[in-house]
């Protein structure tokens, strides 16, 4: 099953890409996201699983989780399940959190956001995640641990939706961030991420075309202690902009993914397509499939990814909130009861709780467009 998943993934990548595969040297060396269709760039699933299994165990080892366990069983074992529910759909609909596109986000909000990111980077780690040197890096470490579980299978979208939501809540709870959240409309900047003022000395710092450590902006000189890959070697926050890759984060590519009626087809199209190209197009740490949440841009990219799923869902909400298909890493069919693990950072939830961002169950937000 794992092999067939992998070959399906490769087929999908080849199908939707049809573009020159880019093979670049990234410094520091990190496994590239497997979206170009090039075998050079692919971390084989079996290898990723093996590497994962060989990792020292930190906190809850997701490899020991049973993805078929019922929510009730998990509730008994971790004491966390189902405590996330905070409001009703009606209450949520009356006052949802709105995520504003970067260009619609005020200078004051932008500056508060940069400060909140810096705050999280300056906070000590929870201690639950080995190798993490800050509360910020807890997220990179959690993502690194879960990488094989939540990529190259259809858990990708719900897991990352809840990952971003969890990050948002920690930013609010632990760094006092009290502004609206944000997203980045990559279709406006396809092929030209570096000319957005997001990548300027005022905010995330410059995105240059050659491999470089980030030396300007709010995160100049940042050291990343998670990764590269499955390792734990301190390295700089690096980037290597590639306009040909980010050109794939286009309206036409988005629309081609949205045209899929089946969730699994949509998920593959977007994960291997615009999602992967956005990662590799920023390069460096962002192209490190395991540790990329250490790069602040990760959160801008994954809100863009999440919004794409929401748009797909809104095209047919009666059906697309009511069911899900595809499989998890073990080949088990996803259902609305499939559990989304967050490693103790937030309560675990089910796909049912995150499939509608306005359900008011675990989540309550929408995008400003
Ligand atoms: Cu990821």
From TrEMBL:
It comes from the Eukaryota. This is Uncharacterized protein. It comes from Nemania bipapillata.
């Amino acid at each position: 099953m794992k092999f067939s998943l992998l070959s399906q993934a490769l087929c999908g990548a080849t199908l939707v890409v049809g573009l020159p595969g880019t093979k670049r040297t990234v410094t520091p060396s990190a496994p590239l996201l497997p979206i170009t269709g090039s075998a050079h760039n692919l971390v084989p699933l079996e290898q990723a699983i093996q590497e994962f299994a060989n990792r020292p165990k930190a906190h809850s080892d997701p490899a020991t989780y049973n993805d078929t366990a019922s929510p009730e069983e998990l509730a008994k074992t971790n004491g966390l399940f189902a405590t996330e529910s905070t409001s009703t759909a009606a209450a949520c609909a009356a006052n949802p959190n709105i995520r504003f596109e970067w260009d619609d986000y005020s200078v004051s909000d932008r500056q508060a956001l940069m400060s909140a990111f810096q705050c999280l980077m300056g906070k000590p780690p929870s201690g639950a995640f080995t190798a993490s040197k800050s509360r910020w890096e807890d997220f990179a470490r959690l993502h690194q641990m879960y990488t094989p579980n939540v990529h190259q299978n259809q858990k990708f979208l719900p897991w990352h939706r809840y990952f971003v939501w969890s990050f948002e809540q920690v930013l609010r709870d632990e760094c006092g961030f009290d502004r609206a959240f944000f997203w980045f409309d990559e279709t406006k900047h396809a092929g030209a991420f570096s000319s957005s003022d997001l990548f300027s000395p005022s905010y995330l710092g410059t995105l240059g075309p050659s491999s470089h450590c980030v030396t300007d902006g709010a995160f100049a000189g940042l050291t990343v202690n998670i990764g590269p890959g499955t390792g734990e070697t301190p390295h700089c926050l690096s980037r290597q902009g590639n306009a040909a890759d980010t050109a794939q984060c286009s309206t036409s590519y988005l629309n081609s993914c949205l045209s899929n009626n089946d969730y699994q087809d949509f998920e593959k199209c977007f994960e291997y397509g615009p999602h992967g190209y956005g990662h590799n197009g920023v390069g460096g740490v962002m192209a490190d499939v395991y540790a990329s949440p250490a790069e602040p841009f990760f959160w801008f990219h994954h809100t863009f990814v999440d919004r794409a799923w929401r748009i797909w869902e809104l095209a047919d909400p009666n059906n697309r909130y009511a069911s899900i298909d595809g499989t998890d890493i073990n080949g088990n069919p996803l259902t609305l009861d499939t559990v989304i693990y967050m490693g103790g950072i937030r309560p675990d939830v089910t796909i049912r709780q995150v499939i509608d961002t306005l359900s008011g169950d675990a989540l309550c937000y929408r995008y400003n467009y």
